[in-house]
Amino acid sequence: MPQTSSWIVRRLKHLDGILLTLVLLLLGISLAVVASASGQSPARISGHLVNMGLALGLMIVMANVPPHLLSKVGPPLYAAGLVLLVGVALFGEVRNGSRRWMNLGILAFQPSELLKLALPLMLAWYFQRNEGVLRARHFMVGGALLLVPFLLILRQPDLGTALMIGASGFYLLFFAGLPWKVMLGGAVLGTASLPIVWGLMHDYQQRRVLTLLDPTSDPLGDGYHIIQSTIAIGSGGLFGKGWMQGTQNQLDFIPERTTDFIYAVFGEEFGYLGVMILVGLYLAIVARGLVIAGRAPTLFGRLIAASLSLILFTYVFVNMGMVSGILPVVGVPLPLMSYGGTALITLLLGVGILMSVASHRQLNKT
Amino acid sequence: MNRATPLKNLDLELTRFQGRLKVGGTFVALLAIALLARAFYLQVVQHEYYTQRAESNRISLVPTAPYRGLILDRKDRILAENYSAYTLELKRGHIQDLEATLAEVGGLVEITPGQLRRFRRLLSESHEFETVPLKSKLTDEEVAILAANRYRLPGVEVKARLFRNYQAGPGMAHVVGFIGRINDRDLTRLREEGRDRNYKGSAHIGKTGLEQSYETLLHGRTGFDQMETEASGRVVRMLSRIPPVPGKDLRLHLDAELQAVAEHAFGNYRGGLVAIDPQTGGVLALVSKPGFDPNLFVDGIDPETWKELNESPARPMVNRVLRGIYPPGSTIKPFMALAALELGLRKSSDTIVDPGYFTLPNSRHQYRDWKSGGHGIVNLRKSISQSCDVYYYQLAADMGVDRMHDYLAQFGLGEKTGIDLDGESPGLLPSRDWKQRRWNKPWYPGETVIAGIGQGYNLATPLQLATATAMLANGGKRIEPRLVQAVRDPLTHVWQPLPGVVRGQLAINPANLEVVRQGMMDVLRPGGTAAAAAAGAPYTMAGKTGTAQVVGIKQGERYKEDQVARQNRDHALFMAYAPAENPTIAVAVMVENGGHGGSTAAPIARAVFDFYLTGKRPGNMKLEASSAAD
Prior knowledge:
The complex is a heterodimer of chains A (366) and B (630). With 366 residues, chain A is mainly alpha-helical. Chain A has helices at 2-12, 17-37, 42-64, 67-91, 111-129, 136-154, 159-176, 180-192, 194-200, 203-213, 222-236, 247-250, 262-295, 299-323, 341-359, 361-365, and strands at residues 93-95, 98-103, 108-109. Chain A has one domain. Helix content of chain A is 73%, strand content 3%. Chain A has a three-stranded antiparallel beta sheet with strand order 1-2-3. In chain A, a hairpin with a 4-residue loop joins strand 2 (98-103) and strand 3 (108-109). The longest helix of chain A is centred in the C-terminal third of the chain and has 34 residues, at 262-295. The two termini of chain A are 31 Å apart. By secondary structure, chain B is an alpha+beta fold. Chain B has a domain at 85-162. Chain B is 38% helix and 20% strand. In chain B, the strands form seven sheets. In chain B, strands 2, 3, 4, 5, 10, 18 and 19 form a seven-stranded mixed beta sheet that branches. The radius of gyration of chain B is 36 Å and the shape is elongated. Chain B starts with a helix and ends with a helix. Mean pLDDT of chain B is 88; it is low at 624-630.
């Protein structure tokens, strides 16, 4: 028994206290909001709790995997991801007009989810391998490693995930030292290619962008989500209507309110004060992640920690921006808040990696 | 060297990484600021607006239509009442194939071609989201059949609705009027008057008659239930309730039985009659024949029935008492006689010798008396009782059209009486000034002559004749005719009388009035033009006959009643009051194509007087006619 408990203590020592506190705070808030948004549905709440337990367990496991081992997982994981993406493209299930699901008999999952971690790991591994001898061609290879999954996911089509994965790869290249002039050139090129991208977009994607620009143009269709979520947030006011008191929420006016639109429920019931606290918690996680990155002894650790921190906030920004009506509806859940197992597991695996990087600092140095 | 360079690069890379971390941190901070700024805008700056939006999402107002006021006669017999019944209604927005649905419904309950036509007309006038009635007053069996088949007939609804029933029948249609479905025109008017909110739950509005003129009182105030509803429209709970305030009940001066007696007295004739209380102006009976069934209009009339009614030569939709304008003919004579005395143009003892015609100086045109050979020596009293035309030709020529106009105008001729019904005609009382304005022509002396016997430009409604007669009966008090005498608040059950309106008192020398009254009493005495109508009456009548020409008679021709097609025969007129000594009722009767006032119109007035003053019904009147209103 003492042996087991000391083993447990040793495993838990790898957890970062600050990150763990922040994560648990957010999960607590999430549980409260999901309870309210689901009308205290026992199935939803218990499902959420199970997801949390599973994800937290995996986070603890991940925190105990030393970074040098993690970096070795990168290439095979990335390769497996690509294979699955191709497999999905060929044999995948179509749901909601898009081919993004892989049915593995007992469970169906989206391979693109795997890439959210596999791509940064792969790139971090690649740059670690070439540490100190970085040339332009390394960035070109990095770019290619990014582009392949990006394009595969884009043609599923799943614009939102493609952009998120593209962003995570880009952050890594950025922290690896991608020259400013390349980024500038890319930005110019990207802006110039917008009309072409527009032409390649699916109708529903174009409509989403259009209704974003003017939600009232389709108040009963695509615009309905945005209109109702902004009404919910706006009517929350400074202090909110109170937990379980949001009329937009309780009377079913907010669509998908336990998942993608959970921010609308939160904003309605907890007001601007709540929003500030929520954003503050996310910022604290990002700040802690960047501190971990700054202190990381290896390039792999630095790159993975920094890019995972940034991508987390990017999810936050895209989701909250979409729900509050400043970004198109792209279907990105709110990190650590939205109901949904896969996203939660991916995110907490990421947090686990941050913890691993943080806790294996001394070990590596000696 | 090989090892030094990478090391140097490593340091460099580390510093650059630290720099990039700061850039990344700044980037995140900027994104956070954007999110917080947006939230601030929504939750603080625009909070009011979004709160309102959320409230209007959450709360729906469900209107409750008020109970419409009843219309009762002077003895509280019901003339218009409400009843609730089930109707079959279709919601077009929920029906994919309308024809298939109609066929399906037609297989379940009987739909008449008339109902189908009416439905299609209503459909063409309604909006997508409105429900349109297909059949009303469903039997219990029909309700059951439809309920059992509801699941396969989306958009087909059975609803309990309030209806209006006019059990008094066609005779009362021109008084009570009817309500009909609110159309776009009504809606526009209600909006302009700011009353549309009060009609949120109402499907009907008064269209004619008292239903129209007393709409505001009858309708009541719509109630509103504030409901909290889900996005799907499901009601969660009631937040607050403003109950509807029922409309006020109306009690008329009118006596439904007297009305039935009058209507019966017309027999097969068309025409109009109005009886008023000369003291109060209360309308005791108002008959316009033929009438129509107002119940046809309540839930929308089918186009063919409407066409039939509207294009019938009998013109059942025209209220002859209010809108029928006729030359007053000889009924104008008592007023002319009074004018002559009051203006000092004649003394009662003055006589003329009537040779049977009248000529103006310097003219060869003969204005003939209705009695060939004339009436001989005629004084004022006799001029009334025998309706001597020549007396009034001469008088009119002496008086001149303008004095004639000014005096007669004081009896309300040429002006709306102000009755509490809409659509009244002002008639026409000509003058020099009027002719100049209307026709831009001078007045000719010959026009004055024929105006003296109520012909020419003169036009009056039976209602105007009745109110003018009432002034002779009451000694010059100009009263406005009123149908409604009191309104009842349905909550307190207290009747509140509506006082009559007196427009003024005409100063008349009593001696002069008495002479005219005696002349009018003579009309109903042996030798008078309507003597037969008064035979055996236990009270004294005073009256005056009249004839309104329908077709002109050429100079040198004579009007022979038996040679003229019925629709070209003269309209018979009679105005009277009784009892002559202490009048309690004044009547004007117009019988279309009735010929002589004395023979067709006066007996109708007699029947009304008999019933009103003695309670005697016409002998041949069936009981059911009188009890129809009970």
